[in-house]
Amino acid sequence: MRGRLFLALGLLALFGAGCRQAEAGAPVIAIEIEHSRFDPAAIRVEAGSTVTFVVHNGDPIAHEFLIGDAAAQRRHETGTEPEHGARPGELSIPPGETRITSYTFPSDGRLLVGCHLPRHYDYGMRGTITIR
Ligand SMILES: [Cu+2]
């Protein structure tokens, strides 16, 4: 876990020049994608916090990292957007690459994260975000 955090901070330093810097003290969560799964797939965040997600795609195929409630996941499943990255909490990640997004969570509830490339969500490329 600690190694993963250092990796995330190192990647943030690398990407910092071109990306919005994470605020000092703001939480960073590193997500590894391997074999079409998110690791970790059960994410916990603090209510109202802004979290920076550093998502590395270790697979030889593209994936997505899309935060949203069940309705948003359904919309993405039938959506036709080829590329994500303009909205907070939404990324398209080419094979072998790392992308970063920041997302501000509401005061309570539960969100989901998913990849909606064909058949990925049904295969199990999804996770839960518990807000506490
Ligand atoms: Cu995927």
Report on the architecture of this protein.
By secondary structure, the protein is of the alpha+beta class. It has one domain: Immunoglobulin-like, CATH 2.60.40. 20% of the residues lie in helices and 39% in strands. Strand 1 and strand 2 form a beta hairpin. It is globular. It binds copper (II) ion (CU).
Overall, the morphology is globular
What is the number of beta strands?
9
Strand order of the largest sheet: 3-9-8-5-6
Task: Kindly report how far apart the N and C termini lie.
Answer: 20 Å
The tally of domains stands at: 1
Q: Characterize the main sheet.
A: 5 strands, mixed
Query: So what's the CATH class?
Result: Mainly Beta
- Radius of gyration computed on alpha carbons: 14 Å
**CATH architecture group name:** Sandwich
Structural category: alpha+beta
Indicate the proportion of strand residues: 35-45%
Low-confidence stretches: 16-22
Ligand inventory reads:
copper (II) ion
Short summary of the structure?
With 132 residues, this protein is of the alpha+beta class. The chain has one domain: Cupredoxins -  blue copper proteins (Immunoglobulin-like, Sandwich).
SSE topology:
Layout: H1 2-16, E1 28-34, E2 37-39, E3 42-45, E4 50-57, E5 63-68, H2 70-77, E6 90-93, E7 98-104, E8 109-114, H3 120-123, E9 126-131
Parallel strand pairs: 1-4, 3-9
Antiparallel strand pairs: 1-2, 4-7, 5-6, 5-8, 8-9
The structure holds copper (II) ion (CU).
The site of copper (II) ion has 7 residues, from strand 5.
What attributes does this structure have?
single chain, globular, 39% strand, five-stranded mixed β-sheet, 3 helices, 9 strands, Immunoglobulin-like, 132 residues, binds copper (II) ion, alpha+beta, four-stranded mixed β-sheet
